[in-house]
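so my prof wants the structure for this chain in the tokens format not the other one, which i didnt know existed until like an hour ago. anyway here's the sequence
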Amino acid sequence: MSNAQTQSTPRPSDSSKQIPIHMVDLGGLHARLRPELDQAINDVLQESAFIRGRHVDAFERNLNESLNLAGHVVGCGNGTDALALSLRALEIGPKDEVIVPDFSFISSAEVVVESGATPVFADINSTTFQLDPESAERARSPRTKAVVVVHLFGQCANMDALVPWAQQHQIHIVEDNAQSLGAKWLGDHVQGPAGMMGSIGTTSFFPSKNLGALGDGGAVMTRDENLASRVRRLANHGAERKYHHLEIGFNSRLDGLQAAVLQVKLNHWKDLIERRQTAAARYDELLNDAAFSDVIRPERSECSTHTFHQYCIQLPSGTDRTTLQAALSGAGIPTAVYYPTPLSSQPAFQNAAKTEPLGTPVAHDVASRILALPMHTELNLGMQQRVVEELFRLLPST
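here's what i got, hopefully its the right format
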């Protein structure tokens, strides 16, 4: 590989080269918050408030208020359970079809199959990576009961197009908000926080998420009080009171320890998101200065705020991504691929799903070229200069 043009990219200082770069630096984040985290954990230990209890109730209430959700929040065991609970609450099952973007984590479609319904994969926008409304319309059939709208990487899908379309065809919108908690859609026709513009929304508190626990956790959110009550019951073995089960449910509860930890991080929410947004702006500037036109920076929707769970570029067509990643790793630069294989090409869905009539060529192209750069709250300028310098040093010139 020959050197790419990098004259205008600032060079990192010698001292910055000695600092390890992490894909996600949870250690650094937790070190900064350690006194508050220790106190929160100690409070739970002293009270032995491990399953539900005041810490969970307070966190659900505070999350709703802090993000101006203006609805109901129900904690559960993880983000996948949140999706499964949502489909169950909406009475989605056998003979139903659910439209799902082909470019997402498996949970978005896995829960559809588990419900007995059929996922129908639709394509994505080539620059925002969000569900393409035109492809969603091609995927629609008389059996379509819901669409899983995945707000991917930190910003919202095109809700100005998707919300009226879903209302017109009486399709439930289930918002998979695992990566975009706190984002807002500010369109001409639809406005609101991610997770609260459809019938029901979900999120994940997996440790690497922008609001992450010290283990698994998730939540369902909705403005519909009846749906919220049903989800809460389903997540508690179908019971509203002990040993009185109204229906068959799940065991999926957010525990007190995780809720207390999440509350500490929620107290710092504004700072945590601003740090990611600042890091994303630095990447934009550095990548622009590098003047390598074939690398595509992530596009911001004009109508959505962005919380930058990930910062994903698209490599030049034909780049050997595996070789590039190995070379970057050897230079101390971690990267990741979200997602290398569209869901329609996963063996698990071979006999369990459908794809919209024109296929999903954009999802397949993006999957072959996407590359996530380190993105977290502890990034500094020197680290990012080093990431971009090594990226363009190792990319083949054109």
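also thought this was worth mentioning. Residues 1-16 have pLDDT under 50 and may be disordered.
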